[in-house]
Amino acid sequence: MLSRRKFFQLSSAATVVGLNLSSWAEPSRPVPPAIASLPDLSSQARPFTKEERLGRVERAKELMGVHKMDAILLANHSASAEYFANVRLDGSERLWALAMPAKGRPFLVCPAFEEDRAREILAAGPFGREAEILTWQEDEDPFALTVQGLRDRGATGVIGLDENMKFIFASSLQKAGPQMQWTSAVPVTAGCRMIKSQHELECMRLACRATLLVYRAVYQSLQPGMTTRDVEKLIEMAYQRVGFRGEASLNLGEYTALPHGSEEVQTIREGTILMLDDGCMVEGYWSDITRTFVLGKPTDKMLRIFEIVHSAQSTALATAKPGVPAAEVDAAARKVIVDAGYGPGFKSFTHRLGHGIGLEMHEWPYFVKNNMFGWEREPMLQPGMVLSDEPGIYLPGEFGIRLEDDLHVTENGAELLTPQSPSLQDPFGGFAG
Description:
Elements: H1 4-17, H2 33-36, H3 50-66, E1 71-75, H4 79-85, E2 97-101, E3 107-111, H5 115-123, E4 132-136, H6 142-152, E5 158-161, H7 167-176, E6 181-184, H8 186-193, H9 198-221, H10 228-242, E7 245-252, E8 273-282, E9 285-286, E10 289-294, H11 300-319, H12 326-339, E11 354-356, E12 363-367, E13 386-389, E14 392-395, E15 399-402, E16 405-409, E17 414-416
Parallel strand pairs: 1-5, 3-4, 5-6
Antiparallel strand pairs: 1-2, 2-3, 7-8, 8-9, 8-10, 11-12, 13-16, 14-15, 16-17
């Protein structure tokens, strides 16, 4: 099956050139009734307006003032460039960069032969066709051009760089502007993107609903003897029906003890534990959900571990609220698992409790201790944040159980965007559709 990591690699390119999942499916393959009856939800998605994106730019400028930055610089496949300007910059070895000064208008740097395409791309966003573009020829220095563009706009002090910028780009900019102070743009970019607007939450709720509809339809279509490749086709069919681009990986038996599974072809057998993971995208915003279940009768050990993991997920939900350090939520859920005999630390619950979700499936903030990376202190939860709540217990050579739903921090506490899985035998019992 297409792994989560491979899909991450494809997703950025798909935003630029389009990813036609329908071409992967086999037209002659019969569609199971549960999948055939899925609704098309695509008409419920609302595009983001230019005014919404301009509001994001103004918020970024406010945060630049707070963190004493003269500008931020976003380059090559930056999700933040999509967030602010509705563009995914080209990802080649040539520099494309979106500069956003704290004062003055943003500008784009791109190769001279790409100027017409750059104007077309920018025209779809808040900056329009009038956006200033600085171009460089193949034998010129794009980094010196970018630094001069910043200088011309009074941005000569602290410049924030996108966290995903290539090292060669960052180091070349530092050489071109040694008098400037180069730092991480995370307090600005993540500072904006971590707090979801009502429109963003609307997209994520719809993505979560679509994902759970797909999972349930696939679950209802599974039969012993099917392979993971057969299930891959069911997933493709289902996401085509609901109208969104999505992905899921299925792992079985001992492979569920690997948190991200295996690419080995696996065969469903009655009584074997199954783990279905990943999500879909609505207007660029992701869901990320995991359901673990058994076709047939689970063992007593499976049932016991499910209840421990379910309790850990519920404890995380009860702990999460504005003003609580993200690390404390991980600690609360981990304590449930360790106290049940599956510790210490990361022994059986081998990964952090969760990650932020938005334009990227993994983004700020994170439910784990010591996860600063560009922050002055560990992030505190704030209303509008959305993170995965995904505790798990993994027993090598036996099986693993993970439950994952997307958690929204509210004004007074937190909510899950999807109902919790009630049991291994009825993983969608609380979901009305």
